[in-house]
Amino acid sequence: KVFRVEADKVKQVEVKLGQRLTVSNGNQIENWVEVSGLLKVGDLIVVSGQNSLAENSSIKIRPSNTPSNDGD
After folding, report:
1. Radius of gyration of the chain from Cα atoms?
2. How many structural domains is the chain composed of?
3. In this structure, how many other beta carbons lie within 10 angstroms of the beta carbon of residue 10?
4. What is the dihedral of CA 54, 35, 25, 23, to 10 degrees?
5. I need a surface site. Which of 3, 13, 32, 52 has the fewest CB within 10 A?
6. Is residue 64 assigned to a domain?
7. 54-64 pLDDT per residue, tens
8. 67 within a domain of the structure (yes/no)
9. What range does the domain containing 28 cover?
10. Which pTM value belongs to this model?
11. Backbone torsions φ then ψ of 5, nearest 5 degrees
12. Contact present, 24 and 32 (Cβ < 8 Å)
């Protein structure tokens, strides 16, 4: 299960994990995993602190500490 962000709350969504892939891009190694279920392209999911959440928990989104992959 993952938590999908909906406005300022979260909704728990069932997902299935598929293939795992490790990609080396120069000096950086990234781990990717295929996810299928009731998620759509562009959905925001919680990637930190999810262990302390429950359905409909209120959240506050903080900027990521990791570099962007969009060329910035």
Report:
1. 14
2. 1
3. 22
4. 120
5. 52
6. no
7. 899 998 887 77
8. no
9. 2-52
10. 0.67
11. -80, 130
12. no
